[in-house]
C-alpha cells in the first residue's frame, strides 16, 4: 500500500484522531496497526482503531504543539524493527532507537536505527553458490561479539531458491551479500539486515513440547518452582522486595545464550541505575561482560505511555529473532504492570467500556498473546540441521500497594504464566533472600509436565530430584503450619515432635532456600550441586534427633551455621557430611 496523507481532527495527549475523508471505498484506506508519521515533526505513531470515516492513532512521542489540520502520513507498513548484526550489546528505547550518544532524550521525530549503517562486519559464508535455500535458512555467520555468533538468515517470507554470488568478506548491513533466484527466475537480494513487524510473531517450522528445565541457579526456582526452557513465569512483588535484583540474577546466571531485558515504564532513576549497573555484570562462565550477549531496552515512566506497549513487543520480536538462529533466549520484562497502566490510559481516552479498576476488558487476552510468543521451536529453514531454539519469558509485576490478589494485571499474569514467583515483603523484611514466598509460589509444570520432568532428571542422572523436592517442600509446609499453631498456643503448647518439624522447616528455608548473591559459591547453584544439597537435607531430616525443645533449638542453630558455611564453600560435600555426623552424634 502506498503512502497516503490525511488530516488531524482531534488531539488528546497521545491519542490522535484523523479524518479519512469518507467511509469504505470512498475514503482513504487505512489498516489496523499501520505505522504513521504525525504532524510537521513526523512523530511516530500507529493506527489502533478504524471507525467509519475516522481513525484513531496512538503517538509514541510527545504531541505538544500538534494542531488540528496538521498532516499525517500513513506509510502502508506495519510498525517494524530492524534486525541484524549490532543488536547485541546495544541499549535501545521502547521503539528500537539507539539511546547511547544522544543526550538525555532523543529529539522528537528522530529515528535512530539500532543497526549502524557504516560499520563493516566480517561475513563468513556458510552456503555456496547453487545451494537450495528456503526462508529462515542460515547462509552465513558474523562474529557479533566474542560470545555470540550472529547467524545471517534468509528472511522468513522470502521464497525458496538457489543461492548465487555469495562470498565472504567485509560488508555493511545494507550491502548485498548474495542473491536468491527462485524457480520463476525472480531475484531477491540478501542482506545481513532484515525487518519484521513487532506485533506479529515470527513464523517457525513447528512448535515443540517443552522437555528441559531452565537452570537459573536460584534454588527456590529450580527446585520448588521449575521454569521449563521455553516456558513462562511472572514475578509479582511490592516495592523493595527485590524484583530488580532477581531479574539481574536471572540474567546473569540462567543457562541461556541470549538475554533480552526490557525496562518498561519504570522510574528514570531505576533505568539509569540499570544502564549503569548492567554493563558491569560479568558472565560467570566466560568472565566476559554480560552485555556481550545482552540487548537492553529502556523505556522510562517519563516517556509516552503508548511506548510502553511498543517496548514489550519490540523485546519479544528481538528475542524471537535470536531464537530463530537456534539459540536459547531469556526475555526479561520489568514491569508488565506499567505496560498495563499504559493500556488503561489509552483505553480511557478511546472511551472503551472499562473492566476491573478501569483496565481494558481485553487486557488479559492481550497479555496471553504476548506470553504465547515464548516457546521451544524447530526453526524455519532448520529442517536439514534440525536447528532448535527457545524463548523463555519472565515478567516482573508491581501491583498497586502490593495488593497481589486485587491487582488485575497481576492476576491476569498469574493465570497466564505457568510459574508464579511471588515476592514477599515479610520475607524481604526478615532479610530472607531471594524473597520468594515458598507457600505462595507455584509451578504448573509440576502438575502438567510430570513425565517430561521425570525424563529430564533421569536423563541428567538426577533420578530422585522430584522426590527430594517433595520431601523438602513438605518440611517447609509442616514447619509453617506448626509456626501458625505456636503463635496461638505458645511454645509450651507444641509437642516436642511438632517442634522438631518446625526446626527442620526452618533449616530448609534458611539453609537451602536462602542464597547469598554476593558469595561466589552460593549465588548460583548448578544442578549437580543442587542435587547434592537436597540429598543432604533429606538425610538430615531423617537423622535430626528428637530431644527436649531447648536441646533441639541449640543443635539447629549450630547446624544452620555449619550449613551456611558449607554453602559458601567449594568443598561443600565433605562439609555436609560433617554436619550429618554431628547430628547423628547428638542423637546417640
Rounded to the nearest angstrom, the radius of gyration is: 27 Å
C-alpha end-to-end distance:
85 Å
Average per-residue pLDDT, rounded, comes to: 92
Number of helices: 15
Poorly predicted runs = none
State the helicity in percent bands.
25-40%
Please indicate the percent range of residues in DSSP E strands (runs of 2 or more). Answer: 15-25%
Kindly describe this structure.
The chain is of the alpha+beta class. It is built from 15 helices and 26 strands. Strands 8, 18, 19, 20, 21, 22, 23, 24, 25 and 26 form a ten-stranded mixed beta sheet that branches. It has a six-stranded antiparallel β-barrel with strand order 1-2-5-4-3-6. Helix 6 packs parallel to helix 7 (408-416). The mean pLDDT is 92.
